[in-house]
Amino acid sequence: MAQAPGTFSNLDKTGLNTSGLSGPGLVQINKGYVYLLSAIAALGGILFGFDLVIISGTVGFFQAHFGLNELETGWAVGCINLGAAIGAVLGGWLCERLGRKKLLMICAILFAVTGGGTGWAENFPMFIGFRMLSGVAVGAAALVCPIYLAEISPAPMRGTTVSFYQLSIVVGILLAYFSNYMLLDVEDNWRWMFSSQSIPALLFYFSLFMASESPRWLIRAGREFEAHIVLERVGGLDYALAEQEQIEQSFADKAEYNVTDLFRKDVVHIVFIGVMIAVFSQIVGQNSIFSYAPELFKKAGMAQNSAFLQSIIIGVTNFVFTFVAIGAIDKAGRKKLLQYGSFLLFLDALALSAAFYLQWSGLWVLVFVLAFVGIYSATLGPVTWVALSEIFPNRIRGNAMAVATLALWIANFFTTALFPVMNQYFGIPVTFLIHAAVCLVYYFFVRTSVPETKGRSLEEIEKLLQKS
Q: Can you name the residues that pair with 11 across neighbouring β-strands?
């Protein structure tokens, strides 16, 4: 609802009517509305995490059902990442043409269809086909959800709201572990494990009818009036006017970009930083833990039921420590969390390598695995998506995010698919030693190349990085 200049929407942080504030320069953010949109979009993260990790409890069962060797098993687990790479490429194109909201709805439908399709596949090629199509949904959602969250959030809240996306991924992982454990003794258990993702997918689809479109996409599409309504609902009239002016200026000052223009000298360094952040986030070792947790615990001497229960503990740890990042990211900043996280993961990966090499008890393996999960969840996990969602300029955000997430999923595929092979030929100690080296390299990259972006609007970040 429009107001006179200097007055603001009568909305407190819960979204309820209160007495209005007045006076130039004051902004009263409708946190309830921002959190509602964030919660809806973050449901895509739940499906992301659920879909990626649900396979961890099914490996031994579908491997026996289809009679797979180690290479075929790695392909079955890792092929979703190739689908996600395709989804990233398509998502970058579709989110610019259809909008963020419509693409999210397409992803929700794909999640619902492919869950049952994978679970009740009649043969291995059909299993792979549905698993890769599910990956398309994961890749597109991983691209568009952080973009949407960044574009609807005011600068002081952006780190927190985009971190909700990582929290939702963590919730999805936790739900997948619980689902696997609860369905362990059911007939055709692996089929029901996969099929269970259709339930949150349908919830996501119907929730999106309550969401608004991104104001930045609306302005780019020439729908300024609709964008103004969304911005005013977020922060009142003065906020809407100021934000709209900045956003329109960011588009007016730049020529139209396509994919090849990502290599222009004024933006190529930004794209490179984004790609490196995306790749390193996937090769530090978390995929070896999340995708093969029960198998790791069994190698450490734990029984099957115990291994599945330990996987739930991993999910709970992941969930709890994500709140550390949510509370710290807008205070400590993105760069500091990436630095601390990568160095601590380096030390923990060394400890895991030693634990497996020296054949320490399963309890020590559990401790180091949980420490690794906790560190990743408090630092690299959420900060990666925040950084990727905000460092790219408005005009190239969709295409640049597509390139970064494409690189992310390719890295994810190789680390996930190669783990059984590396374990067979090199052993788990050497595998985690390699992860430790990668973590150390990432530490130095962050220290020398990654800028700090906390507390700045997307347009301010754009100006800062294009000057550097």
A: 17
Residue/partner pairs of 300-306 with CB below 8 Å, 24 or more apart: 300/356, 300/361, 300/362, 300/365, 300/366, 301/361, 301/362, 302/362, 305/184
Q: Which residues pair with 12 in a beta bridge?
A: none
Does residue 396 surpass a pLDDT of 70?
yes
Tell the CATH superfamily of the 31-211+254-467 domain: MFS general substrate transporter like domains (1.20.1250.20)
Q: What is the pLDDT of residue 442?
A: 96
Q: How far is CA 360 from the centre of its chain?
A: 33
> Span 314-327, mean pLDDT?
84
What was the pLDDT predicted at 298? 66
pLDDT per position as a tens digit, 31-50 = 888 889 888 988 888 888 88
For residue 285, the 8-state DSSP code is S
What does residue 123 show for φ and ψ, rounded to 5 degrees? -150, 170
Integer angstrom CA distances of residue 377 from 43, 173, 318, 338, 411: 18, 12, 6, 11, 19
What CA–CA distance (Å, rounded) separates 225 from 215? 10
Residue 135 CA: distances (Å) to CA of 67, 84, 149, 253: 23, 4, 21, 36
> Which residues lie closer than 8 Å to 141 by C-beta, 6 or more apart?
44, 45, 47, 48, 87, 91, 104, 107, 111
pLDDT in tens, 129-183: 999 999 999 889 988 988 898 888 888 888 888 888 878 888 888 888 888 888 8
Cβ contact 314:373 at 8 Å? yes
Q: Print burial letters for 392-406: b (CB count within 10 Å at least 16), e (below 16).
A: bbbbbbbbbbbbbbb
The answer to whether 146 touches 24, Cβ cutoff 8 Å, is no
Residue 425's pLDDT is 81
Q: Which of 231-235, 330-334, 372-376 has the lowest mean pLDDT?
A: 330-334
pTM for the full predicted model: 0.71
Show the tokens assigned to 2: 């429009």
Query: What residue spans define the domains of the chain?
Result: 31-211+254-467, 218-253
Angle at 221 between CA 272 and CA 38, to 5 degrees: 70
